[in-house]
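Look over this entry.
=====
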Amino acid sequence: MRRVVGAGLLVILLGGDHIVRWVDDQRVPAARVAQPSAQQPSTAESQRRPAARPSLPYPAAYHDDPLHFLSTAPAESLALLPGIGPVLAGRIVGERAARGPFTSWTEVDRVSGVGPVTVRRLEAASRRR
């Protein structure tokens, strides 16, 4: 049961293949819903389980030569890498424009905001296929 300020009492009952709700003591039928199948988890089950992290497909060029990818890819592509967002991608592009292409992970670590944890994530992602 949930109380909504200014809206009276709202009760939702699950039963059979439909939902019935009461709002301000009036019975109002809601949309019919299908019974959850054995393959589909119920709403309660899906709320208890943490969502699986999707594995993003990284470009083949990143796996083949990650430092070259970091040195040549546009900011939009860099922002898709683990731990890199649009702001950090812009800093990477600025750093390589100022100092030239990256030749080591130490040079990547020098970019403001990258840090050793992000470097480890980038290295690990480059080894996964």
User: Anything to note?
Assistant: Residues 67 and 103 are 6 Å apart (CA to CA). The chain has seven helices and four strands. The domain at 60-127 is CATH 1.10.150.280 (DNA polymerase; domain 1).
